[in-house]
Amino acid sequence: MSRSVRGEFEIITQIKERCQASPVVQLGIGDDCAILQLPPGELLLSTTDMLIESVHFRRDWTGLLSLGRKSAAVNLSDLAAMGATPRALFLALAIPADLIAEDIDLFFEGFLEVCHDSGAVLAGGDTSSSQAGLSICVTALGSAPATEVVRRSGAKPGDGLYVTGALGDSSLALQWLGEGRALPPELLNRHLEPTARVKAGRALARSGIATAMIDVSDGLLADLGHILKASLVGACIQVDRLPLSSALRATGDEDSRLFDRALTGGEDYELLFTATPESEGKIARIASENSLPITRIGTISMAAEEFVLEYNGNMYPLPLHRGYKHFSDGT
Amino acid sequence: MSRSVRGEFEIITQIKERCQASPVVQLGIGDDCAILQLPPGELLLSTTDMLIESVHFRRDWTGLLSLGRKSAAVNLSDLAAMGATPRALFLALAIPADLIAEDIDLFFEGFLEVCHDSGAVLAGGDTSSSQAGLSICVTALGSAPATEVVRRSGAKPGDGLYVTGALGDSSLALQWLGEGRALPPELLNRHLEPTARVKAGRALARSGIATAMIDVSDGLLADLGHILKASLVGACIQVDRLPLSSALRATGDEDSRLFDRALTGGEDYELLFTATPESEGKIARIASENSLPITRIGTISMAAEEFVLEYNGNMYPLPLHRGYKHFSDGT
To answer: N or C: which end of chain A has fewer CB within 10 A?
Structure first.
């Protein structure tokens, strides 16, 4: 029996023992399908994201514990962006021969930690050998009452535009990793172990505050573009209000480079949402309850799909490259 | 903008236009998550399967149309094995640079054809570039009333053991492909484009006939082993009753080699199930209604996890290698 074949059954047995129980998951790993019973009347939300070696990550830049955490988080972030409660994750791994058992264990440790912290359980998946590189594919299932699901299409002119946390850290970390520069751990972790804003997303949805929402994975302008397109509206962004972390500011870069990075950097996994002006107070309360800064960065306008950027009352030029690219041009 | 980045948006737009509507899928491709509303009271069934280049397939052996069909079918087969109605598929593709747009189109044509034939719709996924080989990861979601879900654990001593279709074709085709031998198309297609027994699985579940069920992906003995373990029973197989296709018989191999292949060959994606002796007539009707042979091949016994093989009343030796291996030992 080959390493990979033996590996599959060993991995599944070990993982099964580490999976938590859940009232929603009637049957997890161990049959042809997992069986879930969602709370009556709730809609099912489903999202799938891959992390491919040499496209989305490099094993010489990330530990397997971090990679496990990130693999769960980037999928949970999509559930958060629609306001869903995470219920179950499914994990498919194609494992190259040079990945040792301890690395796989670390990956699962990180993955299960973030999965369980979100309230979801690992309910199934697949493993295979890989001839070239580690491939990770995760499907995340969540649920929410129909009235509490937030789409991209609900933004209205006059709505405020908000973002959680800080922007640009992850893309700076990625650039410095590429340049071989030493990184402050708080910046490095923002790239290697991003946090999905699950509780904040759920709170913004449950309260009816968010009129449209998306997570910032491709960069603020790119992801805002999706909201503008789906909602047939435009946006004016106060660039000087974009939230920057103290770690990002401490790099000493000039303001325009920092703000360009905040406008275009990807993989921050913060929530970008719109809300009516009356929601200001409630948003402050959700920020406080979640110990998570939420910053108003602009206003939705009528001009369909049009961006206007302002900086201290003046026009601010649109960055040339609006999209975010992984180091090997993967998407 | 790189080929792969441009590719992603083009692919998504084109695919979106080709996706069908479904009353279950409220929102398909185009937001952070897909939104599904399952029929009230039905359970959700979910399964994930990968197809990795050089592990599960070789591009010099399969066309992309066939590969698209197979990628959908192997996942639908897991839903069929629990009696679920397919609802939505999610498709993640890591695409190498040497795969041209026409190939990707063919893949989607095959995938969508099998997806739609099953009654499901493509509701989301992910695309990425790949540094090495095509990786395909599919998650299939289905649903069924709680009383109609068939697990592996319900087999009882005295139950008959049944299998749909014929066994061994796919593994012979794989062997001959490896040896560079010319193949009759009906054998080749059994490997390259297996059929998920979705309607038969649903009928066996809905009628309450199947007491335990699994699909034969790893080989009859290996998959029967899962039923025996989950149900804490044994099985006696009448090897001479194993259903062989006329194409397999026409190879002129001696009987013992044909039956060994039927016992251990993988990827037939037939349904293996157990049923009480009273169900004989109903099973014949389901076979007739689905134009699909269903053969009784043995009986469930009390001897936990014990296989007994008989051939025309005599003992038949257990094949040495019970599991099925892909050509590169992937699982």
So the answer is: N
